[in-house]
Predict the structure of Radical SAM core domain-containing protein.
Amino acid sequence: MEEKRILPLKPFNSNCIKFILAFPDYYEYGLPNLAIQVLYRKLYKIRDVLPDRYYLYTDDSKEKDKILEYKIPLKEADIVGFSIPYEGVILNFIKILDICGIPYKASQRQENDPIIVCGGPVVNCNPLPIAPFGDIFILGEGEELIKDLVNLYKNHKKNGYFNKKNFLNCVSQLRGCYVPAVHGFHGYGLIKQTKPIDINQFPSHSIFISKNTIYGEETFSIELRRGCNQRCRFCYMGTRLRPARTLKESTFKDLVDIGLRYSRIIKLFYEGLDPEYVEQCLEYIRGKGGKVRIGSQRLDKLSERIIKIIGEAGQRKLTVAPETTERLRGVIGKQKIRNKDILKIVEISSNCGIPDFGLYFIIGLPFETIRDIDEIADFIMEVREKMNSLGNINGYLEIGLNMLYPKPWTPFQYACTILPNEAEGRLQYLISKLSKGGYKVVVSTDVVDEKVERKKESVYKNLIKIETTIGTL
Ligand code: SF4
């Protein structure tokens, strides 16, 4: 596995606090995660702390319990910090503890077992389902808090006698820390989130760069904006990650200049930014000889110029999120997005030389009926037909389709989740409708297999790929 690093590896010193950042999914998915990278940078700067990473082992891995760089067992870490970005990886988090010989229930861990800290969007929304497995849960952004946590740990270790109970008692006093052993199950509701950080003071960007990721190319990522000011009713970002904060032009330019020393490709992450500012940022990267990439986009914030720039830079795919049918978009707060506008974007992106198109859908939304699944299938076929009619028969159409996990703090918090077998039934119905429409449907739970499939065929006019976690639960 080849990887470029912006920070050199700290020399190993067994007396340092070993703080391991763990991602409960494979390296391909985990490396691009900026939360791990920004926290690594924070830890790296603290004296007497040795940061390292751990990613989910693969079946053929010979060292399933070893951390990435220092190759010591995860069990020997002082603190293991898990970032849990989506619900689908919760079981991996528990599997990692188990395979590494760390009792997965917090109540069964001893004084010499690592302290397990959990953070990330799933935790910030609702740590209660995984409360029995972690010692500390970070509610909110962890960049500032991590230093206080480490200092507290250092102080408790200083005398050579570490008492976990005393340590956790002190941690429970820190804003943003939910400690189930101290606060209990019901105490969670009283814990305030950490204060939102100033992203210009400590911007989030790549420090590890590798082409062995889902991007398939060496990419330097920059978080151009954190949070979102929209309030889509199902979404955690619009309610729990506020206010939205944007990088200043000068900070952004400095980061691009650093990034271009390591990679020609700069990927920007942002939600709901004005297209004019995005265009300015993309032009800056282009002017410096870089190639730009952007993630999935809100339709009303996507200009023709943005699509043209990313097309010229060689981005292969543009993804938008219709989420559901036009009727249900009114229910989720995205009523402004019309199918005809999406078809227009398909046309512009195909004409700008972007072959692949992605659509994200959620099933199991409140008030969804079988008619909605029919309409989703019809619209998917309409997009495929549009691509074909534009001569874009080599373009891949990828559908991300997952079920709704109603999130606390959002207006949908009391909505019912459909059962896994119901979700599976709706998925099968959708597939059969697409198949009857004359399309070959490839269903995948792993985006990494894409390259393998691509070798088999090069004309995709009759192919629709669905990426989903439905059926894996
Ligand atoms: S779905 Fe997108 S636009 Fe809507 S609140 Fe979430 S991040 Fe913002």
Remarks:
- Residues 228, 230, 232, 235, 237-238, 271-272, 298 surround iron/sulfur cluster (CB under 6 Å).
- Residues 140 and 154 are 23 Å apart (CA to CA).
